[in-house]
Amino acid sequence: MGAPKPNFLHKLTLGQEKGRFEQYLEYSQATSQVAIKGFLGGLAKGFGIVLGATVVAAVVVGLLAVLGSVISGGTGDFIQGLANAVNQNARST
Question: Among 53, 82, 88, 89, which Cα is nearest to 66's?
């Protein structure tokens, strides 16, 4: 099997470019679908960011609570007080 003929590659490339252009034309003419997809994508990203930030905050507060109970002295009391304040604020809202 030799190398493909340049004519075959040329036809294949033109077909791919034509398909992409037709897809672009369909996409640009369906503005309501583009708007809906963009809106739903934005909602999903926002939900993911909020969920991720909540998990990170919970882990940080948990680590602060553990560190506050392990470390003795002024630093441990400060960390424990900070963790308690965050937990009380979370419960009240």
Answer: 82
Radius of gyration of the chain (CA): 28
pLDDT (tens digit, 9 = 90+) per residue, 31-84? 888 889 889 999 999 999 999 999 998 888 888 777 766 666 666 677 777 778
Q: What φ, ψ does residue 72 adopt, rounded to 5°?
A: -100, 160
Domain extents for the chain?
6-92
Kindly give the residue spans of alpha helices, DSSP state H, lying in the chain: 6-29, 31-70, 74-92
Within 10 angstroms of residue 74's Cβ, the number of other Cβ atoms is: 8
AA letter at 2: G
Q: Which residue has the tokens 């309501």?
A: 32
